[in-house]
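Record type: monomer structure entry
Structure origin: computed from sequence
Chain ID: A
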Amino acid sequence: MTSATEQPETPAARRRAPRPRLIATDLDGTLLHDDKSVSDRTVAALAAAEAAGIEVFFVTGRPARWMDVVSAHVHGHGLAICANGAAVVDLHDGGRFVEVRPLETAGALAIVETIRTAVPGSSFAVERTTGIHYEPQYPPFQADPGAVIATAEETLSQQGEGTGPILKLLAHHSDLAPDEFLSIARAVAGEHGSFTRSSPTALLEISGPGVSKASTLARCCAERGISPEEVVAFGDMPNDLEMLGWAGTSYAMANAHPDVLATTTHRTSANNEDGVAKVIERLLAG
């Protein structure tokens, strides 16, 4: 039985729409269950899509070092888009960086200074290709034994071999509502970077200007001669909005943020109900 949140295509619609050439899916809150597992049904659907000649790209805010959960399920090209578009990595080669679109140091410093002034109580972390660095006040959301603790200004002033490019800046606030924090930060510092969020807390993810899941996915598709109309995308949070708007066909998960539900034209079941797999199965059956 179809969930009330789903909008399945009719047989006539399936005949009109060509089979996609690429599926782009977010991970947390979308492909993964809340326990961060990949269900057997989803594993089978991903493999079936690749076997049918449809490329699958994982497009996530996660850093490369957190991609073990899906590294066994990427086929063919082996590539994934990480850090909200700041990096393309090869999961067949241990997460090797294939392309990096960094946030420049001057821009990162300007963002920190501006947000500190406008929103007292903000704390920061810096995600580099070499690992994460965070301030003493910043709450580490996942234990990382390789993390370096220092102020953002100290971290960003470090240059030279071993520091690695900046993939994204993270800003956290303990009291503000997530969307309020995002709105304020964009208003005061938006000229210096691309601001988004994917956490239920007031945690902002800041990339270089013009860097997003959508812009990096568009580059990967252009290299393959794939048009937006040939892409089906899945997501659930504000950091997916540009990608969902760019793709020819987009699906919001039933558990998605209100802005995502308002932007997309299709719905599928929640992440814990294998919503992505259900759509892939229908696409292949059609």
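Annotation 1: The longest helix spans residues 105-118.
Annotation 2: The radius of gyration is 19 Å.
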